[in-house]
Amino acid sequence: MGRLTSEGAWNKCGHSLKLLSLCPRISLMNVDWLREVCLSFPGATEQLQWGHDLLFKVGAKMFAVTPLEPAPVSLSFKASPENFVELTERSNIIPAPYLARAKWVALQTRDALPADELARLLRDSYEMVFAKLPKKTRDAVSSAKPAARRVRNKKPVKKKRGRSR
Predict the structure, then answer these.
(1) Which residue in 117, 125, 47, 39 sits closest to 80, CA to CA?
(2) Closest Cα partner for 130 from 66, 82, 60?
(3) Which residue in 27, 47, 56, 82 could disulfide with 64, CB within 3.0 to 4.6 Å?
(4) Where is pLDDT greater, at 83 or 150?
(5) Among 66, 120, 129, which Cα is nearest to 96's?
(6) What is the tens place of the pLDDT at every residue in 79-96?
C-alpha cells in the first residue's frame, strides 16, 4: 500500500487506488495505521477473508479483524475478561457479534479509543491468542525473523556435480 503523495497515489477523496474497488468509503489512513501496529508483532500476518474483512493472525489464529467496507463495527479484537467488562461499558464499544462469548469487543467508531490505548489493547489481544497456540507453533513464531526484515538471498544456487560411473 502506498503513502499519501502529491503524485496521486491516492484518489481525490483520499482513498488508496489499490483498494478503492474493495472499499469506496473507508478511511484508509486508519487501516494503514492498524496494519502498521498489528504487523509489527512477531509472526503476525494479514488475510482478506469473508468477502471484505481484513484479519490479523498469529499462528493461523485471528487476534483482530476490521471490515474494508462500511459496516456497523469498525474493528473487533480479543480482550481479557477484565478489559471486556470495562470496555463494553464505554460508549461506541460493544460485545463483538458472534465472538462475544470468547470475550471479543467491537468498536462502533474508529475513534472509540485513543490510538495509544488501542495499540496496547491490540498487543494484549495478540499476546492472548499467541499464548493459546500449541507450543510447537509458538516456538516457530518466536524463532522466525520479522516479516519486514526477512530478505531472501537471490544468488543462483550452484548445482553439485554428480559422479559419473
Answers:
(1) 125
(2) 60
(3) 56
(4) 83
(5) 66
(6) 999 999 999 999 999 999
Cα separation of 83 and 73, whole Å?
18
Residue 137 CA to residue 16 CA, distance in Å, equals: 35
Nearest-angstrom CA–CA distance, 73 and 64: 12
Q: Which three cell numbers stand for residue 28?
A: 484508509
The CATH-assigned architecture of domain 28-133 is: Alpha-Beta Complex (3.90)
Q: 0.90 exceeded by the pTM?
A: no
**Helix (H) / strand (E) containing 118:** helix 115-131
- Size (the chain), residues: 165
| In the predicted structure, residue 65 carries a pLDDT above the cut 90 | yes
Burial profile 10-47: b = 16 or more Cβ within 10 angstroms, e = fewer: beeeebbeebeeebeebebeebeebbebbeebebbebe
